[in-house]
Design goal:
Helices cover 91% and strands 0% of the residues. The protein has 90 residues and is mostly helical. Helix 1 (2-21) packs antiparallel against helix 2 (25-45) and helix 2 packs antiparallel against helix 3.
């Protein structure tokens, strides 16, 4: 069990570093989701199911959905600005 915990901690470090170095926002959100899921597994191993459920629901669930919606809004605004720029050129 100790080896499994060390592997999960290694995955946490890899996720944290890769989110910092990632240039694609969608990949960053997916890595953040995996970080939250790994963290919830660690909370279960530490025998704290209430924190595990909270981490899974808030970290991997609600926060990720809000990030996805924000990313969609940002791309929608960028597309609208590009369309307006094309109309001005004509």
């Amino acid at each position: 069990m100790q080896v499994f915990t060390c592997i999960l901690l290694g995955f946490l470090v890899v996720c944290a570093v890769s989110v910092s170095l990632s240039k694609n926002l969608l990949n960053s959100i997916l890595i953040y989701m995996s970080y939250s899921l790994i963290m919830s597994i660690i909370w279960i191993l530490l025998e704290s199911p209430d924190l595990a459920i909270t981490e899974a629901a808030v970290g991997a669930g609600i926060t990720s959905v809000l990030f996805f919606l924000t990313l969609k809004k940002i791309h929608a605004m960028m597309n609208n600005e590009e369309e307006e720029g094309e109309e001005k050129d004509e």
